[in-house]
Specification:
By secondary structure, the chain is an alpha/beta fold. The protein folds into two domains: 151 residues, N-utilizing Substance Protein B Homolog, Chain A, CATH 1.10.940; 258 residues, Vaccinia Virus protein VP39 (Rossmann fold). 44% of the residues lie in helices and 13% in strands. Strands 5, 6, 7, 8, 9, 10, 11 and 12 form an eight-stranded mixed beta sheet that branches. Helix 14 links the parallel strand 5 and strand 6.
Length: 456
């Protein structure tokens, strides 16, 4: 590979060699960020493509980890990084400049968040710009701006209200209005941090917590600090556990003893809740609209050695003559309760998405009510912090369908955490609502769930 700049000494040559080693990882990071922020593609999908057939495919594990770290830092601190960069861009980000924005953003993240040595972050950013035909005419601009970012950026960052600046205005305003500014700030602060890894284990949570260096969660899960690839962790191949946030594990628990009952899991993939229901002894039919996601669900059940029927279909219109004892509908939503885990959501979703999502949820709920036995139980959940996708959705259903009544969730069903419940008895977890004594292991997804019972 061509050297970054001519070197006059052995020390400089060694430094350049070390820097060039990370070029591929940084190129992958810039491409992922361009796909997410410019082309509006989901981060998980983009990373998956990059790992399978893109720039990350042939990277060693260390460089893959670097790519991910740069991407996550860029997204979690995007508001601050944009503000710093714009301080030194008199005319704003240049239009029609290819990957330049992603290169600048990712380099700023390296300098100000990851504390990468300036010679590496700046030099490789300039090289990346030179590789891109649309960005190369801005290589000198990139060099000048990033040098100023390196020198003045830390002070600029320190003077910002990080939680607020890194949260899109529409989310900050909504969270402040619905939950109070203190909660909005706490949610936003957690969203800047790497989340812990939660596992639902089939048995022996204490033993698995000890083996994996984690701690036991309420309900028998295990929480730990992520370390390397999940597939390489002890117990994965043996199907001893699956990844599932503490909050995401709660809706399936709201059925109580479900052994021997016939349960329909709507919008089921990738199958964490399906696995929960099957492990609890239910006879489960898992439905999903995506053939690819349903394939993942089947593979997960096979790895976990858990039974379960599957069906491909649109849960808003799917019909069968069979009627179910219980139905779990974890509906598609804005996913604003999972921004800490999926930081791209803050920049892929907009407030204008909410009405169409709420309409979809309404259609899903209405169809679910037709598939439930008289006297059966329906649990509706979303990983959203937005009331339109939670409390308002249930209030609307109860108004238009008199067959159903709300079955209030009791504190003992959520391990005594009455602060997770609304006055009407629905579940509303906020990300800061679960704390531990271990740094790095605090928080949970923001979730809503309601339990409904049909008339006998």
């Amino acid at each position: 590979m061509q050297e970054l700049i001519p070197m006059a000494s052995e020390t400089a040559a060694s430094r350049a060699s070390e820097a060039q080693v990370g070029l591929a990882a940084r190129r992958a990071a810039a491409d992922v960020l361009t796909a997410v922020l410019i082309k509006k593609q989901p981060l998980d999908l983009t990373l998956g493509k990059s790992l399978s057939t893109g720039h990350m495919a042939n990277l060693p594990p260390r460089d893959r980890a670097l790519t991910r770290a740069v991407v996550m830092a860029s997204l979690r601190h995007k508001g601050q990084l944009d503000a710093v960069l714009l301080t030194f861009l008199e005319k704003g980000f240049p239009p029609k400049s290819g990957t330049l924005y992603a290169i600048l953003l990712s380099a700023a993240a390296q300098l100000l968040v990851l504390e990468t040595p300036p010679h590496a972050a700046i030099g490789l950013a300039v090289t990346l710009a030179q590789y891109d035909p649309a960005a190369k005419r801005f290589d000198k601009l990139a060099n000048a701006v990033l040098r100023k970012v390196s020198q003045q950026g830390p002070a600029l960052m320190a003077g910002m209200d990080a939680a607020k600046v890194n949260t899109p205005d529409w989310l900050w305003e909504r969270w402040s209005r619905h939950f109070g500014e203190d909660n909005a700030r706490a949610i936003a602060a957690l969203n800047m941090l790497e989340p812990p890894l939660d596992l639902t284990v089939k048995s022996d949570p204490e033993g698995w917590a000890q083996r994996l260096g984690g701690q036991v969660l309420p309900g028998g899960g295990v929480r730990l600090v992520p370390k390397g690839r999940i597939e390489e962790m002890e117990g994965y191949e043996d199907g001893a556990w699956w990844v599932q946030d503490l909050a995401a594990s709660l809706p399936a628990k709201l059925f109580g003893d479900i052994a021997g009952k016939r349960v329909l899991d709507l919008c089921a993939a990738p199958g964490g809740k399906t696995a929960q229901l099957a492990a609890a002894g239910a006879s489960v039919l898992a439905l999903d609209i995506s053939e690819a996601r349903l394939k993942v669900l089947k593979e997960n059940l096979k790895r976990l050695d858990l039974p379960g029927d599957t069906a491909l279909g649109d849960a808003a219109t799917w019909y069968t003559e069979e009627r179910f004892d219980a139905i779990l509908l974890d509906a598609p939503c804005s996913s604003t309760g999972t921004i800490r885990r999926h930081p791209d959501i803050a920049y892929l979703k907009v407030e204008e998405d909410l009405p169409s999502l709420a309409n979809l949820q309404r259609r899903l709920l209405d169809n679910a009510t037709k598939l439930l036995k008289p006297g059966g139980t329906l649990v509706f959940s979303t990983c959203s912090l937005e009331p339109e996708e939670g409390e308002a959705q249930i209030a609307s259903l109860l108004t238009r369908n008199e067959r159903f009544t709300l079955s209030p969730i009791q504190p003992e069903e959520v391990f005594g955490h009455s602060n997770w419940l609304t006055p009407s008895g629905t579940l509303r977890t906020l990300p800061p609502a679960f704390a531990t004594e271990t740094p790095g292991l605090n928080g949970m997804d923001g979730f809503f769930a309601a339990r409904l019972v049909s008339a006998g």
